[in-house]
Amino acid sequence: MITVRYVLMLVVTLAAINASAATEKSIVLASTTSVEASGLLANILPQFTAKTGITVNVVAQGTGKALDTARRGDADVVLVHDPEAEREFIDEGYSSTVRQIAWNDFIIVGPSSDPAHIIGGKDSVTALKAIASARAAFVSRGDRSGTNAAELRLWRAAGRTSEALNPEKWYHDVGGGMGQALNAASAMNAYTLTDRATWLTFSNKGSLTIIIEGDSRLINRYDVIELNPRKHGVARLDAAKVFAEWLVSPEAQQAIGAYQVNGQQLFNPSAASPK
Question: Domains in the chain, start-ordered, CATH in brackets?
């Protein structure tokens, strides 16, 4: 005889099973802001979910914060673009597999009046030296993002450390995302370093224009990083691996390369031939 207690137990058990299944079908991606703000993830993630039934919840942050999110165990897979920070993450034992999925480039933008007289050049380090010499306004994200890290590497190559830059009145550390830095640069007629994808989707350009591009030091590589199960012990890592494998698959690589804004390609797929 089926009792009320038995029915209630059955309902609770089925609810637990369904909740577990739902958890397994959902993962958290800690991602750099550029692939999210550019619209790339919104464009390709529905294809992945339709194929696999796995939902990807995106936490978009600067690379440093995204890696910290993964360190805390609050993400299942990471998509970032700072080789030095990634190497530290790997050396700490947090990662099991790192693969490049795409690349684009950084550019230096600034006011069309170009007070540092550097427009049209291809040497980013020489350009930064000229900006510093002219004491022309420069905006830094200052947020531990991959873009911020790339900027500081270029400044070091130009002979300036962050400790030396921060007291300078012409150097403005906004401590925010790329959109915030570009808005500040537009308002102040200042130079800044930006990834090309964000620049192409940014609408408040004002007098800003591309000043420096084409330097090999400005290559911007995006890596998908799987987490070490021994370090995390997260049940969703199997689903995260399915996602990482999909990102480097021909299907996803084609989708990444096909994504355009205003007729311009924002990311170059590179899983087969890392840049």
Answer: 25-104+220-269 (3.40.190.10), 106-218 (3.40.190.10)
